[in-house]
Amino acid sequence: MENKKQHRSVIIALIAFSVVAFIVGLIGFFTIGSEEEVIQGQIDVEEYRVSSKVPSRVLRLLVKEGDYVHAGDTLAILDAPEVEAKAQQVRGMEDAATAMSDMARAGARKEQIQGAFELWQQAKAGLDIAKKSYERVQRLFDEGVVSEQKRDEAYASYKAYEAQEKAAKSQYDMAQNGARREEKAAAQAQVNSAKGAVNEVNSYRKETVQVAQMDGEVSTIYPKVGELLGSGSPIMTISIMNDIWGTFNMREDQLNGLKLGDVLKAFVPAFNKEIELKVYSIKDEGSYATWKATKSNGQYDMKTFEVKARPVKKFDGLRPGMSVIIK
Question: pLDDT tens, 107-121?
Answer without folding.
Answer: 556 666 677 777 778
